[in-house]
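Final report, results section. Input specification for complex C-07:
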Amino acid sequence: MNSEKKFKAFGDSLLNFLYSLAKSRASGTWTGEKVSNSVLSQALIASKVDQPGGLDKHEKGDFVEAYIAQAWIEKVITTDEAVDVLVKSLKRHDLEREEKKAVVEAFKDLLNCIEKKR
Amino acid sequence: MNSEKKFKAFGDSLLNFLYSLAKSRASGTWTGEKVSNSVLSQALIASKVDQPGGLDKHEKGDFVEAYIAQAWIEKVITTDEAVDVLVKSLKRHDLEREEKKAVVEAFKDLLNCIEKKR
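Structure output:
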């Protein structure tokens, strides 16, 4: 799949929302979060998703935003399914001690889940 | 209803997501947006929602984030319903020429819709 750049800006809002909801559920406290390009870039590298070569960290983050947004827009994955994948992954970690590692793993799992459904 | 501050941070993510989705639908172009406290404050003043006295602009914005988030969490309103209300309102305006006015009206309508369902 070619993830189209036109979904990137929407993807930013969508991913912050999905992660805020997932972290709220995993931690039991309502919270609002932003997901960094650095985290998304590491998640992409660890995932099974085919990615164009030559991307820097920022471009990899943009790619992930567009990739997940396009899947959500095309109903490959619903909000509930995406949040379930993230929550399941987050719950395997201690969010207070290793949140960054937990978020990378969670988005890696979400990317792999979408790749499998494509 | 006392909107609890604990929903404010999640409300920030939720409102940016709802507005990004609504503007994408109203404009026909996928986009990611942030909703300012100033806009939310004006929407609250124009709405029929009871609000605590003595709030400054920033606190009014926080109140709206918490109010809408709590309604969404308690399933008073779903994502689709909220986006439908926002889109209907946005379509009454020229988004390129008067976006701020359009967003204030859209969130006023959403607040009134929630107030009526409570």
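Chain B has a mean pLDDT of 95. Chain B touches chain A at residues 6-14, 16-17, 20-21, 24, 29-33, 69, 73, 79 (CB under 8 Å). This concludes the modelling results for the funded period.
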